Amino acid sequence: MTALFALATALLWGLADFGGGLLTRRMPALTVVVASQTIAVVVLGAIVIATGAWSELGPGLWYAVAAGVVGPVAMLAFYKALALGPMGVVSPLGSLGVVVPVSVGLLIGDRPGLLQFAGIGVAVMGIVLAGGPELRGAPVQRQAVLLTLVAAFGFGSVMALIAEASTTLTGLFLALFVQRVTNVAVGGGALYVSVKRGGRALPEGGGGMKVVLAALPALAFVGLADVAANGTYSIAAQNGPVTVAAVLANLYPVVTALAARGVLKERLRAVQAAGAGLALVGTVLLATG
Fold it and tell me: Residue 91 — very low, low, confident or very high, per pLDDT cuts 50/70/90?
């Protein structure tokens, strides 16, 4: 069950990242984040009311609040790092956030077997290579590296925090709702500050709000896929070793790369193909170990 839900997480996160990446080509990244998460809040709010999840109120929800604060900060740091580039360095470094939940798992007593340890090493290497790291070329700005590491730590922290937010299914619905409300509050505040400083909230050129409205189905998919990924990861982490769940869930860069290959006809670089292959080998070792 752990492997199944963790791989579902990787699929959902990978597709959500792909969709979000396409949307940010047409509108500001902060607008994509706020709009997609607002849709998720509405849907989760309806689920919370329908299931009576309010009865699950408890101190564990502070983990969800923390995840909701850390998530947008990590995302903003990552987008800024991507802007500074080169993306071929930033993207693989961002995958190193897997170290956080894996470390948490080891600290709370996870003891993977020999095959699983080997699978972790091979899969993490595959994840990094799947991002297509640039080993040569222009020098990388120190700020880009620092921002990427902040983002990676943030992404990994969100995984660790949301896994601790609830132990029941209805409680998970409430935790995800609280996380997304916090996401919208933090992201909305950042968007407001950005606009006050001369930034854009709507796409450039003609259309403006019409472009955003036309993109609502895609925004809904991104927001809901991201929410579902957090949910499946939480279930995976609670039903098996956190170390295994975290590594398998972090295969999402491979999914994003394959989606770009299938939809946009982007050619995989040799290093990315090798990374995808290693990630597959690592997955098999983790699942069979």
Answer: low
The amino acid that residue 153 corresponds to is F
What is the distance between the alpha carbons of residues 212 and 204, in angstroms, rounded to a whole number?
Answer: 11
| N- to C-terminal Cα separation, the chain | 14
CB of 254 within 8 A of CB of 127? yes
pTM: 0.81
Burial class of residue 143 (count of CB atoms within 10 Å of its CB; 0-12, 13-18, 19+): exposed
Distance (Å, rounded) from C-alpha 183 to C-alpha 74? 11
Q: CA-CA distance, 106 to 215, in Å (whole number)?
A: 42
Alpha-carbon span 129 to 267, nearest angstrom: 15
**What's the mean pLDDT in 209-232?**
92
The answer to whether the beta carbons of residues 240 and 89 sit under 8 Å apart is no
Residues 6 or more apart whose Cβ sits within 8 Å of residue 217:
none
277 by Cβ neighbours in 10 Å (0-12 / 13-18 / 19+) ranks as: middle
Between CA 18 and CA 13 the distance in angstroms is: 8
